[in-house]
User: What shape does this take?
Amino acid sequence: MPCDKLRANGLADGRVIAILLRRLATALPTLFAVILLSFLLMRAAPGSPFDSERPLDAATRAAMDKAYGLDRPLIVQLGRYLGHVLQGDFGPSLVYKDFTVSGLVAQGLPVSLTLGGLALVFAAVLGIAGGIIGALRPGGWLDRWIAIKSAVAVALPSFVTGPLLVLIFGLWLSWLPVSGLDSAASWILPVIALGTPAAGAVARLTRAGLAEAMAQDHVRTARARGFSPLTVLLRHALPPALIPVVSYLGPAAAGLLTGAVVIETVFGLPGLGRYFVQGALNRDYPLVLGVVILYAGLILFFNLIADLLYGLLDPRVRG
Amino acid sequence: MKMAAVLLAAIVVAALLLPPLLPWGYAAIDWDAVRTPAFSPGHVLGTDSVGRDLLARTLAGTRVTLAVATAAALVALVIGTAWGATAGWFGGRIDEFMMRIVDALYALPFMFVVIVLMVVFGRSVLLVFLGIGAVEWLTMARVVRGQVLALRNRPFILASEAAGAPARAILTGHILPNIASVAVAYLMLTVPQVVMVESFLSFLGLGVQEPLTSLGILVHDGADDMDIAPLTLIVPGFVLVATVVCLNRLGEGQRSRMAR
Assistant: This one.
């Protein structure tokens, strides 16, 4: 977008910075609350991470607690933890010996972000296209067909579609790889399984937004001036219709990240989600805590982006 | 809409009434029929990898999933209505403060908080639905608050206030009956969401635990066996998706009737 247009949209002036600051003022305390809550919950948990088949003798136990700083008062532990987190250090993993949580996260994050990003693009392209095609002939058979498909797509959890896709395209047809990340084709099934519910939601939002936009005055004017129906739809009705889609970005990011947990487990992808599930099943507190904080940060970040885009698309919001 | 109601009713009735009529219980193992295909004698949909009847298991799983979902949705209804009605009724600073909290909670990655809860306090059905209910009340609180705000200045409310009725009586006598139908519509939309969350947790092994079963556990087990017995994945998966689609459809229908 050219610079003068950005300015005309108000992005370059102080108001956007004000929105940003206001949003940060709620996002940062929320992030802190997540850290505090998860930290306290983890410490309140019955049992210790050193509990195993064989109970440790008291001296070893005390030495272990001392080594991990678990003998200090809670507030000191929290302070130290926060200090380390700010430096990007989430401590050692208790289950993956010889790995730090930061190391595991650094390994897993690129995989998860690629998976989530591709699924988001898949959902946006398919969903917006579906919404537009449906709106071309409101009430036509294609419109109704897409409406039914997207209602079902929204309800297709990735843990059902994932294994089903593996069964059909991997085991029965042997068309696509079903596990690991050996080639670019390995991404196809996970991305489809993860992106389908979001695609359905985007299609419904786009379709509903277009229906509303088509009834607005500026669209009627554009039609009266003799623009072709397609031009009216794409140039005049689509931008305001996309506003609800953009505000869906925050929830979508949360949904994709959660879905990715399952998809990575189903398809054996070495992403964050797999470490998270392993950590949760094995009571690896530092790992679970680190991943939760990271997820919370990512979701808050996407909510922030959605708010900014919202202001860009709808001048009235800035008022 | 009608189809959704019929299909959902069929699923619910089958899950509630059919199990006692089947020759096999959901946990009973038929050693002579491990991984039998569908339509074998005694096992209409076949059995799983340890010889448990798939139809009985799917029905039992549906029952647990629906029970958890209904209970959690009711928890969400109670918390959400109380919170939203209080905020909407008192308005001003109290309203702002209470809704700020809701906004902040909305931004939390809930699935992860629930998972943390499961990790910390162990995995129990009670905690599953308490946890889910406690995180699903936010939308309800927003909707109810909006309704109460709209009702707040209606003449009949002002009249009863002027007549000296205590706030409690106005809330229970006038406000609640008027928001009931909208709350029910959102309750119907909460149930399918809870179904999804419960299945998700159970799929990961963090929700309902064996020997109890739920649709999420069945899908998980089915995914392990699908190369030999594909029905063990397809049947519970289909029931899960059908239930969610029908519930969504009914809830949305109810909501748009309200809007009119």
